[in-house]
């Protein structure tokens, strides 16, 4: 049984339960329609993400395959898309995304496009947001963004959706996939996507959005980046990993990131190994944890991670080479973005701690960025993106109009 088949079997009882509950609650006709069509979409997952052999060549952002997603919310049109992108070494990769746009004709010049970066879901193909029961569920603020007239391009990141090497917290690879998802949206005529781009991301997606902001002018000069908004972004990577060295979150995030870095960078750094930073138990457990999704397999993750709390890391990766250099290279802020940036941080966030985000903001303010930084009392890591939407929306509109809020630097 393939991983996708296993996931389909796991999803079907959940889907039936959702249908029953919503039926008993008297769900709307549109909700019932979305559930029914979402179930049909799940059944096509395996075929959609299996690449043709050979994969047709194409430049970054060109489309390999697309299919409509009728389960999108009323008043919008949506597609699941496979498209070309490149990784940090310039190697061609095929990635997946969801593109959503308001129904109807686009304005002259096309719709401004939101490049969305999703929070952590896992690090292997079946963990992609686009192949979930609701492929729109993790696009935070989607209904408000569509109502405001934006098209939204939501990348999965390489290694999610389409089988391949993980890109977890690999800044340039994540960034290129976000930018190329925007390019792919522009290659869908019915999306009506224009050249003006805004980036919006949460957690891992904040990391991807900030790196995309750094990369877009040289990687995709045809696009006009106008602003970047992030919520609880993964910025100070060494700090983030150290903050959680003694809890299950740290073990889980560590398993995703250390496995990805070992796979991506070992060829460039002879002798690089997990043994140089992890305990023997950590080395043994990391491959299994890195195969599990944060959603749907959380209990399985905890079963492995909990016994490793305080027993996972043997040597600090922030001071052990080449890990220290790689963490610095993949920490955003080394290059200026050059457009207004909005940073939202929950004061009750126990995962991305306020001190780490404040550290990042201070660093890029010193470098001359225009940053609006707002902290939200009571908001935690899961709620911060929703809590910030009432500020994100006017920030995005102001960035487009050249009237962003004043910098708090």
TrEMBL record:
Gene3D superfamilies, alphabetized: alpha/beta hydrolase
Keywords, in A-Z order: Hydrolase
UniProt-recorded name of the protein: Alpha/beta fold hydrolase
Keyword Hydrolase (UniProt): yes
Pfam families: LIP
Database matches in PANTHER family: LIPASE 5 (PTHR34853:SF1), PTHR34853
Phylogenetic classification of the source organism: Bacteria, Bacillati, Actinomycetota, Actinomycetes, Pseudonocardiales
This protein's record includes keyword Repressor: no
Molecular function terms from GO: hydrolase activity
Database matches in InterPro entries: AB_hydrolase_fold, Lipase_secreted
């Amino acid at each position: 049984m393939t991983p996708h088949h296993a996931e389909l079997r796991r999803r079907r009882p959940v889907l039936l339960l959702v249908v029953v509950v919503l039926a008993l609650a008297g769900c709307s006709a549109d909700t019932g329609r979305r559930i029914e069509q979402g179930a049909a979409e799940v059944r096509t997952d395996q075929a959609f993400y299996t690449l043709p052999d050979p994969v047709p060549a194409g430049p970054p952002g060109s489309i390999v395959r697309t299919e409509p997603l009728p389960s999108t919310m009323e008043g919008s049109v949506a597609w699941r898309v496979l498209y070309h992108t490149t990784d940090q070494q310039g190697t061609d990769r095929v990635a997946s995304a969801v593109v959503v746009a308001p129904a109807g004709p686009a304005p002259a010049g096309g719709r401004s496009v939101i490049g969305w970066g999703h929070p952590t879901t896992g690090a292997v193909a079946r963990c992609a947001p686009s192949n979930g029961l609701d492929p729109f569920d993790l696009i935070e603020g989607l209904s408000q963004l569509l109502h405001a007239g934006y098209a939204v391009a939501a990348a999965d990141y390489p290694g999610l959706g389409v089988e391949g090497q993980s890109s977890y917290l690999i800044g340039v690879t994540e960034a290129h996939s976000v930018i190329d998802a925007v390019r792919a949206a522009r290659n869908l005529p019915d999306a009506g996507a224009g050249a003006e781009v805004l980036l919006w991301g949460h957690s891992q997606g904040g990391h991807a959005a900030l790196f995309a902001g750094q990369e877009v002018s040289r990687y995709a000069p045809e696009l006009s980046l106008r602003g970047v908004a992030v919520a609880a972004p993964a910025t100070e990577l060494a700090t983030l990993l150290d903050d959680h060295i003694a809890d299950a979150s740290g073990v889980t995030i560590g398993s995703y990131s250390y496995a990805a870095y070992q796979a991506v960078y070992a060829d460039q750094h002879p002798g690089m190994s997990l043994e140089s930073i992890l305990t023997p138990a950590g080395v043994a457990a990391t491959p299994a944890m890195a195969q599990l999704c944060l959603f749907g397999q959380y209990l399985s993750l905890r079963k492995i991670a909990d016994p490793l709390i305080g027993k996972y890391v043997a040597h600090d990766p922030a001071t052990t080479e080449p890990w220290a250099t790689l963490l610095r290279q993949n920490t955003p802020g080394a290059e200026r973005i050059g457009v207004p940036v909005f940073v939202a941080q929950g004061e009750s966030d126990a995962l991305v701690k306020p001190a780490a985000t404040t550290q990042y903001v201070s660093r890029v303010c010193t470098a001359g960025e225009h940053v609006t930084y707002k902290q939200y009392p009571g908001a935690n890591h899961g709620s911060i993106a929703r809590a910030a939407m009432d500020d994100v929306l006017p920030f995005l509109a102001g960035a487009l109009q050249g009237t962003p809020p004043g910098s708090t630097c």
